[in-house]
Predict the structure.
Amino acid sequence: MATPRNRNISVSETSRPVLPRHARLKFDETRKVWVILAPERVLAPDEIAVEVLQLCDGVRSVADMVDHLAAKYSAEREAIATDVIAMLQDLADKGFLTEAREKTA
Amino acid sequence: MSPTLTDAGVAASDPHDGLAVLEARGSTAETFGIPLAVLAELTHRCPLQCPYCSNPVELDRGGSELTTDEWKKVLTELAQIGVLQIHFSGGEPTARKDLVELVQHASDVGLYSNLITSAVLLTREKLSALADAGLCHVQISFQGNEPMVADRVAGLKNAHQKKIEVARWTRELDLPLTVNAVMHRQNLHQLADIIQMAVDLDADRLEVANVQYYGWALKNRAALMPTLEQIEETSRIVEEAEARLKGILAIDYVVPDYYALRPKKCMGGWGRQFFNISPAGKVLPCHAAESITGLEFESVRSNHSIAWIWQNSEAFNRYRGTGWMKEPCKSCEFREIDFGGCRCQAFALTGDAGNTDPACTLSPMHEQIFKQAELESATGGDRFIYRNFAGGTPETGGDHGA
């Protein structure tokens, strides 16, 4: 029997995270709020999480995201990196981020 | 860090109800919000005959089902009023020939779609077409971890083998999979093996759902009720597996009502987050609501919009919020935590849906139903009454109705 696949990822600057197929990030037009839809759950990510999650396309690396955000907010790169990685790891631990792989929609 | 995510409280096991975050903006109602999710029971037809089925004993006939166009209109309307998720259920939803078309329509109008299925009617082609139509998630029910027990409970030969096959296709097509294991006295001894089966099938999630006693399950309660010892063992197994399988398999555990101390927050509160649409188009606060006699339910075939029914119909407003409560709920500090438990269970066990759910230790009936459960678990026969359109068929010898 193969070792079961561990869905949790360890986020680093080289990670290319993406939302798993069962989790959909969507702007809810009725409530005017961003939501993550998952089986049996609806979550409301805060503004910063939404901005970061929109960058998680499975192509961009975390390093690229940090560069982008540091430039956009004229902030110190190191501080942004620490915050972004902590946030992404938190999302990954809750099952809302995975590492990009071939067929993930 | 400040909280990144606020849970909108859909998961029954999650204590953090962040619904207020969603209700605070854009809500048109005062005491309840915009519904988050809808259970669409496309049909009551089903090739399985599970004795624990939560469908009403009076099943809707095929001829009364909403048409494809009627369902599409419903889906469009749901998306317009702000519903986010649609659960296609039944009966067996894949018995509808138009399922791919309905899933495609749900995708087109922006609904997150989940298929709740027994899987036995699915082919790989059909599943692939559903994936292409935008299906977001698949939930397959299992009756055991091997055919002897599982096929007997399902009342269908070779059902278990077929389910295993479909579960594999699901993961091959990269669709997320939840294994739903409905547990009772006659299969709880397989729980550890069922958990391993879910891991082997590469499921993302496992629901260990103790039978809830509505509809057919209530009819079969004495044959299904677990012993207290089984429940204690179950809790131990689930707890151990949750720790061991962190990051591999998420487990949701539904405790059995009759042995609970506090009642479940049924449906997240009556008419507060969810509703159900029956095969014939009735809009119900929950899938068992028709068991409460004396309540009138509006239909999507009426002149009313779904939004009107949600906000104004008598059935939804009767048990909304806390105003309807009697003691001990009325002055209870938990009244907005669990909303007095389940109205359908209160009705089934006390004859009045306005009473406290006897699953609660504060109900004057609690002791009685606890003892009843213990008695039935020890002395109830094991023979089932199988679910069907003929009002049920008692299990005979060897061929278990299959």
